[in-house]
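We emphasize that the prediction below concerns an isolated chain of 429 residues; any contacts that depend on oligomerization or on bound cofactors are therefore not represented. The input was used exactly as deposited, without trimming of termini.
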Amino acid sequence: MKPMIMGSEHEYTLYSHQMNPRGIDPHRLALEVLRKSQFATQGEWLKNGSRAYFDVGHLEISTPEVLDAYQLVVYEKAGERIVDLARTKLEEFHNVKVSAFKNNTDPDGVSYGSHENYCVPRSIEFPGAYVRSLVPHLVSRLTFSGAGDFIDRRYVLSPCGYLTSELISGGNLSNTGILHTRDEPHADPTRWRRLHVIIGDALMSEWSIYLRAFTTSAILQLMEKGLVDDAPQLREPLRDMWHMVEQVAPEQWKLELVDGSWVSPMEIQRYYLAKVEEAGLVENAREKEALSQWEWVLDRLDAGDLTKLKRKVEWMTRLIEVEKMIDLKGRDENVEIAATKQYSELSLASGLYYKLQAAGEVDRVVTDAEIKKAIVEPPPTRARARVKLLEEYEMGSIDWSEMSILTEDGGYERIHLPDPYDPKHEMVD
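Result of the prediction step, given as a token string:
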């Protein structure tokens, strides 16, 4: 596929039994640790091009602009490591136990931000074309991209899907939507729109992250070519999505089309899969493997071979591990919550997902060496130009596509970086 600028952002949860009850916020402390660490440049910005900031009570990390789904996995995982390194420094400085989680909800059912961003052409009709061609994918992809969690004592495939309240929304908190209307391109607004996808969960599984971004970016590229204008149209996407995410049996997942017929979400996904194959978007070995794994997952879902998905599909992996803990400790609300949260703990030593990874019980997409490199090096996008400026000049203000540099006469020179694909930018020189 052609390169496509994308990124993700996650609100992480930090908790300390000694700090939180005393009114000390480990999120703010961790952010201060990051800003004074070897990973930081200036302000909220890190050496790998990411942004680390405080948002609605949480430490949030936004990945830098990357060019494909593979790079997205690398830099999202690098963000996890950066948060966990800040956590360990907090423990050292304050001599307390601090836990960090990449989770989706709190016990009251409040959803944390876990969003994707895709740089799409301004020329594509919005929101009409996206409702027609993308919404069916966003609903049906939850079958393999859901994180799984307990809400209201019920295990749901996707906590974000379960808590989504509208088809189209402009907010992130109380009125989350399948399609989001925020229009902050962070690029030349005459050429691009930033598609802000908020119907997605915080994922630990590399394969779940990868397939979600790979399939979505492929469909967005099909939309540019006008090749999915005939996508299956859902009569009531919200109603059917709510019912679907409350079931763990694929035979119970049904979506009603506008013509009154009912199909499975796997059938919707196979429509998109066939379109990607027909368009010849996939070129290299890595993308061919992603396409093959997409089809393999759909085959397993159709056949009901759910346990075979445990190495790749997060909601299945988490469900198996939670059931193990319930069998050991008994079915209790506190056990359910503890098990689901322990799964997404970032510590390599105590996090359940990372214990599974160390034991070779989940499949990898990227390597530890790639993640380690991505902690301190930006990808070959505009992030590289921005980091270069941050390392060489004192800034007055900094944003993704615009910054002001302090000049010798005490004034400021404004620098524009309108092209997210350009790692150099003439203005940098």
